[in-house]
Amino acid sequence: NSSEAINTDIVTLPRFILESQQQFKQARGNLTLLLNALQFAFKFISQTIRKAELVNLINLHNSSITINATGDVQKKLDIISDEIFLNAMKSCGVVKILVSEEQEDLIVFQGNNINDQTYAVCCDPIDGSSNLDAGVAVGTIVSIFKIDPNVKDLKQNVLRSGNDMVAACYAMYGASTHLFLTFGQGVDGFTLDNNLGEFILTQPNLRIPQQRSIYSINEGNTFNWDPKISKFIDLLKNPQSEMNNNCVPYSARYIGSMVADVHRTFLYGGLFSYPCDKKNKNGKLRLLYEAFPMAFLVEQAGGKAVNDFGERIMDLKPKHIHDKSSIWLGSTEEINKFLTYIA
Ligand code: AHG
Ligand code: MN
Ligand code: MN
Ligand code: MN
Fold first, then answer.
1. Taking burial as the number of CB atoms within 10 A of a residue's CB, which of 177, 283, 284, 317 is the most buried?
2. How far apart are CA 145 and CA 117, in angstroms?
């Protein structure tokens, strides 16, 4: 029986969306259109990154340097991926507002009917771009809000609490391309099958481990941290401290792509942090398209996400579209250790 060897009834992302849409009576198919455009953008960016070196898209000898609104140097792939993402959102017809790390201001798409343009989308087209030239895993991070047609000032549709997100996801372009997605009812993980060109459901209802002795932080910033933070990290490394139930020091793992560090944290557990420091007074990671979507996903998988002061990331509200925040996220027990420590 040949059907024993392979699964002939796989759940593709379009099938998954259709089946979960049928559960919501008010669904009008707009979310399906948005998800279709998102997955196209992820596939396109994935392919572009994978052939970058062969078509001279990596930045080793780039002459012209441009800087984005948050002070980052833009690489060629940052700009191309931003364009890919923008065009996908523009053409799907259901997005009214787009915020991108690589665009100083928000972008408003003109449509025929505001009731069709249901969504505001915020994105980090390439997360981890400092790793691009070395072929290390990078990703795309997205948060999704619903437009309120009664709100006159369009910007207010994204300057809201993280609790207002209706969906969030990220794609990670690693050895395989992965997609982790939430609509606020748990997290589901998909893997891109390059031959089929489809994202396949591989990790339904993903749960983050409750505990794991791994910390993920740029420790090179120690001398710029508040001494309280350095002391907390020292406690994790000390096998005799009250933080170490097993009397083994924590392992350090830091890739420098938030997407990849959070992805590992999802699967193995542990904690990931980018705290405030002397250089980054409000942290480095941006609320709308880095901290919010990751916090939503982590909480939906049973973990926690807070800032340096122990406030829930999801409860924060940006004043400007590129506002930043400190962040601590990961396994519930690990984040609880931090919360107990700062209390
Ligand atoms: P981006 O590449 O989108 O600008 O994001 C970079 C972020 C994030 O991916 C990562 O966690 C962090 O910057 C790494 O910063 P350091 O190099 O300062 O550790
Ligand atoms: Mn950047
Ligand atoms: Mn980023
Ligand atoms: Mn980026």
1. 177
2. 11
**Per-residue 3-state assignment (H helix, E strand, C coil) for 167-203:** EEEEEEECCCEEEEEECCCCEEEEEEECCCCEEEEEE
* Distance between Cα 86 and ligand 1 center (Å): 21
- Tell me if residue 296 falls in helix, strand or coil: helix
Q: Cα separation of 107 and 290, whole Å? A: 18
Instruction: Note the ipTM here.
Output: 0.98
Distance 126 CA to ligand 3 centre (A): 6
DSSP code at position 16: H
- The tokens for 68 are 């984005």
Exposure pattern of 14-28 as b/e (b: 16+ CB <10 Å)?
eebbeeebeeeeeee
- Determine which residue's CA is closest to atom 14 belonging to ligand 1: 256
Residues 6+ apart with CB under 8 A from 45: 81, 84, 85, 125, 126, 140, 171, 173
Atom number in ligand 1 closest to CA 129: 2
Residue nearest to atom 6 of ligand 1 (CA): 128
Lowest mean pLDDT among 18-22, 68-72, 199-203, 328-332: 18-22
Both structure tokens of 114: 């505001």
Is the pLDDT confidence value at 3 over 60?
no
Helix then strand then coil, in percent of the chain rounded to 5, is 35, 25, 40
- The pocket around ligand 1, CB under 6 angstroms, is made up of 72, 101, 124, 127-130, 218, 256-258, 274, 284
Measured torsion, CA atoms of residues 75, 128, 83, 151, in degrees rounded to the nearest 10: -130
Q: What is the pTM of this model?
A: 0.96
Per-residue pLDDT, 111:
82
Length of the chain: 343
DSSP letter, residue 99: E
Q: 75 CA to middle of ligand 1, Å? A: 13
Q: How far is the CA of 10 from the centre of ligand 4 (A)?
A: 32
The packing angle between helices 76-92 and 30-50, to 10°, is: 160
Each residue's pLDDT tens digit, 201-223: 999 999 999 999 999 999 999 99
